[in-house]
Each structure stands twice: as structure tokens, then as C-alpha cells.
Amino acid sequence: MVKGVGDFLVETVGEAVAEAILSLLACALLGALALIAYLSWSFSPPLTLAGAGLLALALSHGARSIFRGPGKGRGRRGLAAVTSFAFLLTAATAVFLMFYATGCGCL
What we know:
With 107 residues, this protein is an all-alpha fold. The protein is 82% helix and 0% strand. The longest helix is centred in the N-terminal third of the chain and has 42 residues, at 2-43. The chain starts with a helix and ends in a 7-residue tail after the last helix. The mean pLDDT is 82.
């Protein structure tokens, strides 16, 4: 019985520490993204908007490649594979920030 209580406490403390680390990581990532946006806007607003437009175009191409699927007789190659990976990475980062950065008190 004592061993079971000890295991429960170790698991509970481990989960609390992991949650705190993930929340801290999410806040740091959110702060870094905000700093990058601020610095790029202060350097050149038109270049920032152009970069955001190109990023949106690349991510939308990746989303289209994923949800539409490959054409007849062609697999995912080249640009479609790169933009699909970028879209999935961005989506995973957004989900991570939604779940952890909203509870860190930094917003």
C-alpha cells in the first residue's frame, strides 16, 4: 500500500513538473514570435507584409496538397512535400500554443 501511494505521488509530481515545463516553453515560444513580429515590423513594414503574404501562400499550398491529395499518377514531391510539412508544423505549433500558452498567465 505504501508503495502504491509513493508511485502515485511520484506520478503526480512528474505530471505537474511536465505541465510547468510545457507551459514555460509555450510562453517562451509565444514571446519569441511576438518579438520577431515586432522587430520585423520596425525594420520594414512592407517587407513584413510581403513575407506574411508569402508565408500564407506557402501554408495554403501545403494545406491544399494535404487535403486534396496527389493528382493522377503523381505522388507528393518537391514543393508540395515542403509546403505540406510547413503546414503541419505550423498547425502543430498553433495547437501547442492554444493549449499551453493560454494557461500560463502571460497573455
